[in-house]
Design brief:
2 copies of one chain form a homodimer. Chain A is of the alpha/beta class. Chain A folds into 2 domains: about 170 residues, Rossmann fold (3-Layer(aba) Sandwich); about 200 residues, Dehydroquinate synthase-like - alpha domain (Dehydroquinate synthase-like, alpha domain). Chain A is about 45% helix and about 15% strand. In chain A, strands 1-8-5-4-2-3 form a 6-stranded parallel beta sheet, with helices on both faces. Chain A has a two-stranded antiparallel sheet with strand order 6-7. Chain A is globular and about 70 Å long. The two termini of chain A are about 35 Å apart.
């Protein structure tokens, strides 16, 4: 059944090759002081940085920069960026990069005018902003997180080995606009591309494998999963296939902008397991999810058998005739495993640098979620990590 | 391929039983003068009117009313409502009803502060508003049109026998908020319910059967179609099934809020044919669409064969093994026909009051669209109407 919910996603999306030109329509809506936020500098090699700076100059903006935002952005980096944004009296935070850069910009957005410590307030206590929120705009260069059209922000605290995501309720935390040009993702290494693809797929799974009914959200989720599987197979062989990359980009946005969570309890346990691995190893987010997924899903399969059967038939085209539900469900996960191997995803956490010795610590760092088919005990979390080694 | 596009849908949706209480959160955002807009008065019988009036009073609003908005709202009724809205200095237009009431409210919204004639400006010349737009809020009591989350408005000019829809580009024309309580649709007659269901299904078809690729929009569209077919079969037998009615309501919103049109050329030829029938007979919108659909789709099938084959397999579960593409495609339409008959939809325009003598006039009143698989000539339009008799 569709539970009660509210839905509001006001982000304006500009999609397609050359969509960057729409910055000229958006920038005049905001004040003069822009903080340009980006990562390790790859945008300086592929020309995106120059293009953005040119458009900012043309629109008479006064620009400060926060560079070097890392793949799993840290709270220490947030403190550093806050000084820059405050000193610059930021009217707009323009994130140019992937989900990490966008997540980081949102953490800055809710903290510039906040008197409290953002780690404590937003990531330990999960509070909503009570101060003015600085608008965020996004130019996306990596695909997967969906951060371009949601109010989520995942920040890592290296000192306490915690990687925590907060999906804010206030729609003002969402990017006001996002520019999605599929060609901007062409130069990404294959490893990053497939990690992003699995991130997308897993976002859909986390929402799909929860609740107990077959509501509209599940039907949309199946469409999105089939689309990403279809396009990923093309992109895996031909990274510059515009059609495949554009469909992957668009699917990513809808996989995590709250639509398919409507009326669902949602799970997010794979993310909790994967984020613990990420906090320990600093491995690429999508790969940490891939490495723990199958042990997790095989573990919870008996508790959500009808849904795993439906997944097998509707997403993977498994023929159910003459088979038990259990067999059909297992065939679905086997098809998913083949696809994951075909893409070259990390199939265990050892290859990401995790060790047997880390397992207890990983379990300690794993938050337990309550929306899936089975609320895991600590012993089950430990068993899943062992299985994932 | 996904063509370039922009997407922005800021409508805030409140979904579920009891969602009307969220009016208390929305109303304080607007000024004191509210114009309450509704149809033939059924909301006075089922208690919705009393509830809305109570909440308006509690929030200290100064309320004027426009009542008697008809199923195919006329431009004459718009002129009448404009006088009321102008005299009342409306700060908010609150539409309580189905798509007609909501469409009507949007026509008022763009016209209150407009010096030109709204019929000429918006429906003959398809211009965007150049004046201030009065905010619209919606409490939905009938499902189908998707008007609760889009910027479309369909208005009929009885004098010229034209029924014209304009989808405005400006997101400010969309309802600022919509209240979607599935129980509000329980008292609707079966005929209206199934007409609404076919309207939803056809909205998806109009977008799906266009373009030539299998992009993400098509995958989402298939999920929505499967959901509405599934839930309609339950609701057809049990009109008070909350789960089925809620999924139908939610699917309706996403069938026509621009999402599945993203990157697609879109067709809308069934709507043009159906709207001509509506202008002549005043028949229920969804029924006019149902009555012309199969002759139209069978006519264009040869021009979009791969898509009709995909439709058969992915939406209707037709087994393609050992059959020609043409056979598979025809089986898909046959499955659709069975479903339509099962619901009790109008299967021809004669039962809606259209006659052989009207055919030339209907063809004259039909606008030709260019986004589908075949741009129809006048002779083909005449042939399809004859086939639909």
């Amino acid at each position: 059944m569709l539970g009660n919910f509210s839905y509001c996603n006001p982000t304006r999306l500009y999609f397609g090759e050359g969509a960057i030109e729409n910055l000229n329509a958006e920038l005049p809506k905001y004040g003069k002081n822009v903080v340009l936020i980006y990562g390790g500098g790859s945008i300086k090699k592929n020309g995106i940085y120059d293009k953005v700076v040119e458009i900012l100059a043309k629109n008479g903006k006064n620009v400060a920069e926060i560079s070097g935002v890392m793949p799993n952005p840290t709270i220490e980096k947030v403190y550093e960026g806050l000084e820059i944004a405050r000193k610059h009296k930021a009217d707009l935070l323009l994130a140019v990069g992937g989900g990490s850069v966008c997540d980081y910009a949102k953490a800055i957005a809710v903290s510039v005018h906040c008197d409290e410590d953002p780690w404590d307030k937003y990531f330990l206590r999960f509070e909503e902003p009570t101060c003015e929120i600085v608008p965020v705009g996004c130019v996306l260069t990596m695909v997967g997180t969906g951060s371009e059209m949601n109010a989520g922000s995942v920040i890592t605290n290296r000192a306490s080995k915690l990687k925590i995501g907060h999906v804010f309720t206030d729609a003002a935390v969402m990017p006001r606009f996002s520019v999605l040009d599929p060609t901007y993702t062409f130069t990404l290494p294959h490893y990053q591309m497939v990690a992003g693809i699995y991130d997308i797929f897993n976002h859909i799974c986390e929402q799909y494998f929860s609740g107990e009914d077959d509501n509209t959200s599940d039907y949309i989720a199946e469409g999105l999963m089939r689309s990403v599987v279809h396009s990923s197979r093309i992109a895996n062989k031909d990274m510059r296939n515009y059609e495949a990359r554009s469909n992957i980009m668009w699917t990513a946005t809808w996989a995590l902008n709250t639509l398919i969570a409507c009326g669902k309890s949602t799970d997010w346990m794979v993310h909790m397991l994967g984020q613990a691995v990420g906090a320990y190893t600093d491995a690429t987010h999508g790969m940490t999810l891939a490495a723990v997924s199958l042990p997790y899903y095989r573990h919870i399969l008996p508790y959500g058998l009808p849904k795993f059967k439906r997944f097998a038939v509707n997403v993977w085209g498994v023929d159910a005739a003459g088979k038990t539900d259990e067999q059909v469900a297992q065939e679905g996960l086997a098809a998913m495993e083949s696809w994951m191997k075909e893409l070259g995803l990390a199939m265990n956490i050892s290859e990401l640098g995790a060790t047997e010795e880390m397992v207890e610590g990983l379990a300690d760092a794993t938050l337990t979620m309550k929306g899936g088919y089975k609320v895991l005990g600590r012993d089950e979390i430990v068993a899943i990590f062992r299985e994932s080694l």
